[in-house]
Amino acid sequence: MENNFVFMFDQSESGMKELLGGKGANLAEMTRIGLPVPYGFTITTAACNAYYDAEKVISPEVESQVLQSLQVLEEKTDKKLGNPTNPLLVSVRSGAVHSMPGMMDTVLNLGMNDETVKGMAELTNNARFAYDSYRRFIQMFGNVVLDIENYFFEQQLEEIREEKGYQSDTELTAEDWKEVIEAFKSIVLKNTKRSFPQDPKEQLFLTIQAVFDSWNNKRAILYRRLHQIPGHLGTAVNIQSMVFGNMGEDSGTGVAFTRNPSTGESKLYGEYLINAQGEDVVAGIRTPQPIATLKDEMPDVYQQLVNTCQLLEDHYKDMQDIEFTVERGKLFILQTRTGKRTAQAAIRIAVEMVKEKIMDQREALLRVDPDQLNQLLHHRIDPEYKREKLAAGLPASPGAATGQVVFDADEADKLSKEGKKVILVRPETTPDDIHGIVAAQATVTSRGGMTSHAAVVARGMGKACICGCDSLKIHLDSKQFAVGDTTVNQGEIITIDGSTGEIFLGEIPMIEPELSDEFQLLLRWADEERKIGVRANADNPTDAAKALEFGAGGIGLCRTEHMFMDASRIPTVQSMILSETTTERKESLDQLLPMQQQDFEQIFETMQGHPITIRLLDPPLHEFMPDKEELLVDVTKLQITSPDSNELQEKQTLLRKVRLLEESNPMLGLRGCRLGMIHPEIYEMQILAIFQAMSNVMKKGITVKPEIMIPLVSHVNELKEMRELVIRISQHVQTETGLAFDYLIGTMIETPRAALTADQIAEEADFFSFGTNDLTQTTFGFSRDDAEGKFLQHYVDSDVLKRNPFVSLDQDGVGKLVENGVKLGKATNPALKTGICGEHGGEKESIQFCFDLGLEYVSCSPFRVPSARLAAAQSTIRSERKKSRKEPQYS
Amino acid sequence: MENNFVFMFDQSESGMKELLGGKGANLAEMTRIGLPVPYGFTITTAACNAYYDAEKVISPEVESQVLQSLQVLEEKTDKKLGNPTNPLLVSVRSGAVHSMPGMMDTVLNLGMNDETVKGMAELTNNARFAYDSYRRFIQMFGNVVLDIENYFFEQQLEEIREEKGYQSDTELTAEDWKEVIEAFKSIVLKNTKRSFPQDPKEQLFLTIQAVFDSWNNKRAILYRRLHQIPGHLGTAVNIQSMVFGNMGEDSGTGVAFTRNPSTGESKLYGEYLINAQGEDVVAGIRTPQPIATLKDEMPDVYQQLVNTCQLLEDHYKDMQDIEFTVERGKLFILQTRTGKRTAQAAIRIAVEMVKEKIMDQREALLRVDPDQLNQLLHHRIDPEYKREKLAAGLPASPGAATGQVVFDADEADKLSKEGKKVILVRPETTPDDIHGIVAAQATVTSRGGMTSHAAVVARGMGKACICGCDSLKIHLDSKQFAVGDTTVNQGEIITIDGSTGEIFLGEIPMIEPELSDEFQLLLRWADEERKIGVRANADNPTDAAKALEFGAGGIGLCRTEHMFMDASRIPTVQSMILSETTTERKESLDQLLPMQQQDFEQIFETMQGHPITIRLLDPPLHEFMPDKEELLVDVTKLQITSPDSNELQEKQTLLRKVRLLEESNPMLGLRGCRLGMIHPEIYEMQILAIFQAMSNVMKKGITVKPEIMIPLVSHVNELKEMRELVIRISQHVQTETGLAFDYLIGTMIETPRAALTADQIAEEADFFSFGTNDLTQTTFGFSRDDAEGKFLQHYVDSDVLKRNPFVSLDQDGVGKLVENGVKLGKATNPALKTGICGEHGGEKESIQFCFDLGLEYVSCSPFRVPSARLAAAQSTIRSERKKSRKEPQYS
């Protein structure tokens, strides 16, 4: 055998996760450490890739290895697949390298057919169980493998139930199930034009193929895209002998987390259902019981579970998410994996595991995903606000959200794309609803528990979620839900709190988030480790204060145009722009000067000596002007209705001026330092405002460290001229006030040419700040405004681009320019300070990249500062580990 | 003496042109070879730069060296500056490294004052001459050094003339001139609040300073910008003892070219004035006599001049432009320089000098400026057209032009900026009119000869010019000119032919240019030398035929969108764009297919096997749509006037669709291959049209070599996907027709990212064509449409950018990307073909750059092909000479 495509659970070795997938590797690992795992084998991801390479054909080699392994399994269990008297039943589950909950498909009870069902009935002395299991198999196989909509089976079952006058499935007898089985087989025949396959080996290979196929279904591709998982990894398939949680009241199935995945509390957490199979818990159809009650119902099993959880956490040194089944009082562990958790839980677990000496601080820092932290830094419901609760469910994923109610994932997706905020309300969710959960601010379900599909997915995304809110009576047909007498229609606004499970009518005020003690501690550890600065982008004193609160080391980008945009200033700004002469323009600028100066004074006072990078006016002037189309419509109307009016004349004049400012590609037009070159009086006013503010604040005994940044330089001569302007005005103010200023002059590197000629530019610059938003636009030739709506999404969806380059820095292209810019810049000016102030400054992979290039700081929005501090620490730790060639595996 | 800032004419050595300037170096050279040059000395360009470095102060060191040299001059001439009985008079002239005719200022007769004029009168026994010379000196010094408008002097002179009832200056007596002198001195006193300086040394240093200052006057800066002369070179100053062409009828002054600068004919060519000073010829105030008549008037002098010309041409191995003066029958050579010439003359001279064995072919190729050739390739007046001549003057610079008459340089400049074509008509031109000559299509003067200011400047620019057309009676006040009974007002259209000197009323049809035999020969020599291909950008069979005629080796850029723009196709194109479904769109595309196919068939047949690079659709779709503003105005009007009309509804629908296509930065939006990615059916149609056309033309036995080019690629995956599309369709057509196609698939490199990741992209490409227009836009972040109107001109004017990067490739920035692209591309795909198809493909410096990078070809508009062939040959020759370390000096 040249390639080993199949491994028995006790045959594989550690470190084979790439081949066995996460689930398979864990099953093998658990088997090795002696846990009660039902025996089985894993078909490797290599077999999956071979399947795709062979244009979706399972090779004879793989087939024969599967059959050989099946034989081993049969020998070990002393049962035989398809044997009428002693049948082996197996589960078939996918298991990719990265855990992809709900994405891939599972088939249980495989091996059931018209003969083996009888044997099972006899063997277990439980005909009802046997026929129930058989119908479950037909339904699952029919849905997953044969692609028949579940709806047909559910409808059929409902009909029979109604016919018999039953309220729930538990009332169905063995005979009833036989009737259901026949009906289900008809559904299969009708939908596939073939009888339900009776040959268990045919069942097995069809299912393996279905698992392989599901690797490339739409949901899986969407999930991979959301989580940046490469498409070439493939999935493994796990074949495991069945154990049954549905063999009566001494059986059951459940899910346990070794710690609370929502809060992080170190206490066994989970749910179970008596007399049920595994899928019942996750699917959220029946609402399960909390794990604590198992202690009373099955004390031995509970204790065994507690011990196993401890063993697994000790072994994996991380919080585990465990699936278990109790078959007639005996505990089996079906699966363990690193448990998904909220940001809050991730932080608490990491911090507590350090206290428990399970790991050190550096390891703890690596265990928290910076991307996740943002969810802790969003607004929450104002606890002071008097409000009345409409309903309450399980607090499945924390966070508060407000939005219009929608009842359908497609609708949620559509409205969200139109810029609306929506809350998805469903009886339960399935993997088909993922795009709706992604699009919605939050999800609410009336059924299902804390480990239901909606809960798991929402927590993974850091989105608020409430589950099992059964007081909600949802009417999908009429698109409304009722709670008591209150009816809420699609489109009405509700507010939810995922941390308490509460639902409110209307919009409720939110308050700013605060950092928990554990979060603060973790960030202090991060600051101890990190070797790259973190600053914030802040344009006003409020943002500046927030930035300091969140631990920013300064302001990396203070955009002065937002100061121009203020409603009370716009008329002055407009008359400045419309000035016919420089003298006229200076008059308007004289009016703006004290306003700008006051802005700067407030920010300087707030920042108390931390450096502040101030970017001079950047956007094209027409952004401050009235809308051209509106003017054109007004003028056209007035020409008909009042052709002699003064109003017409005035609007015509204004329209003419607005047209003069119009540009075909404003992003590449008269903006940035080009404004300063053509209308130096505008920059003069801004520079004067900065230095006068500086002297006023210095007189109060406060240190001020401005770093004046010239935007959109593409040739060193632009910077040279603007630098002279800054120096001239600074000297003027210093002479006037008798103060000595300490400040820097630098530039944004945001055109390819600036990066390519950084050696020349660095000779005139004290610092470079890479403006990677604009640099991405010019390097790709993408206008972000146009690209995102018109083709970028298609590019990402169809894998033309791995990621949206405006979200994660394009290292191959834009990154090369940044690298080049740093290298050339430091070559001619070794004292050059370098940083990044594009949106990428808050994104973990981009931070790693910036750290590796030797940048001094990253700058991001204040709310991303904590996450950036953590990412900065991780970059440092990873790079150091890489250097000492001890790069660990990240799960 | 540490630095030698001053050199006597016989003291300097060859190769000191950088220090002595062109004029100074030539004076020294002529002195060395024994020509009759009035003695003198040159103050170096280093002294000029020292002057600017010292914030416009002449250093004591320079001053003392000047005085020492003056002493040497006094000794040699046996005269003394300021000596009342034996005064030395000198001329002071600027002389930069690059000849800048009319740009810098000259002062003659320096040394004249109230005392020396008397000495001169006695010495020459010609009081009239002496006083005339003195008044000339006051006038010139007053104007050039003291900055008094010439108008004051001219007006004063005119008053006195009228008072006395004289018709011309020659009637003024010595006494009259004395009166003029007193009046001129009053003008000086009134304008400068100081008396006219009587101290000749003060006169001298003030004049030297004025020459230095004139290096940075507006005209000089404009000229340097037009001719790409760096500003740091500085000017030298030549001090030369005066000789006098105005000492009577046995004296005179003139200008001679060793060959005809207009046609290139090898025959002495020039003009002279009897009893005049040099400035009279150039200024164009008196119309001089042709040089041939000198043979009769002063046979000895004429023969001496002929011999001198021969000597100079032999010495410099190039056509010379000589200034001479005859003082009382004795010939003096005042200046020689390489003569400016028309393109036609440049070619003929180069070709004939090879025949005369003065130089070899390679040298001849270097002697013709490729930039100049374009003037030979523009339209000329249709000789078949029956027309009546309005007037005729001297054919001062060849070429034909049509435009509105303007009488003022400012007006010409203004109208030209508004996109109008104008012809500047002036009595004469002065350096103050340069911007008008630049702006106008052609210049006509009623006074002045073939070497007048207008003629020299126009020839240098390759613009048509007619001089000395004295039948034109120009009335500047009423803005009209009259010829006999005909009056032509400002704004009326005339047509002129600079090759014949004819002026016509109205517009006259033009015909396509042809290449002269000499031109053809020169280009054949160029083709023998050049090692880089030249292709043409051509979108239709006419351009393709022109390209072949002008010697293009193929089509480097065939833009398919121009085929879409055809008026008869636009409705179909629009309905294609407006399609709501892919099916609808395909219907419109099916209609376009045969049209595109026919276009390609015609081009393929024309090109007869030469390669044709076809670029698939590139511009954003809204370029094909109706104007949004017009629609908006229509809709607004209809809403008031016919709110219920169908027309309103239709226009509203159209407006909505046009809005959907609208983009904020269309240059960076949905265009190029992004169109092909989002609407593959459009590219499918184009590709099908190409291959079906190919098979049809191949069936006629004609070879077809299409090179299909995918535009605006920024990521290799875009090219990969489009490449697959091309291959799929090509295979389909090959299978259908049974033909085997030979074709290439490549891409434009026109985004920085494409250049930065060229190694990846080259793996999917057979060729790269650098689209340096768009690459310049994205690298600088300049939208050409916006930049050129709003700030680029300012950048070039104020030296922020040396040249407009859309005209000459920016080697520091864009060039780095091209270099990188070629290097990376050839690294992964050594068979990669590379070329350039931006406008730079026809510009000589850019061609040199492309050749040095190892590009296989350049592509430019058909009319620039001849010039590109020459530039390509020059690149090869220069690079080879550089390699053999024998890089020559280019004058």
Automatic annotation (TrEMBL), chains A, B:
PROSITE patterns: PEP_ENZYMES_2, PEP_ENZYMES_PHOS_SITE. The keyword Hydrolase does not apply. Its cofactor is Mg(2+). Its EC number is 2.7.9.1. Keywords: ATP-binding, Kinase, Magnesium, Metal-binding, Nucleotide-binding, Pyruvate, Transferase. InterPro entries: ATP_grasp_subdomain_1, PEP-util_enz_mobile_dom, PEP_util_AS, PEP_util_C, PEP_util_CS, Phosphohistidine_dom_sf, PPDK_AMP/ATP-bd, Pyruvate_phosphate_dikinase. Residues 518-875 form the PEP-utilising enzyme C-terminal domain. It catalyses: pyruvate + phosphate + ATP = phosphoenolpyruvate + AMP + diphosphate + H(+). Residues 420-501 form the PEP-utilising enzyme mobile domain. NCBIfam families: PRK05878.1, pyru_phos_dikin. This is Pyruvate, phosphate dikinase.
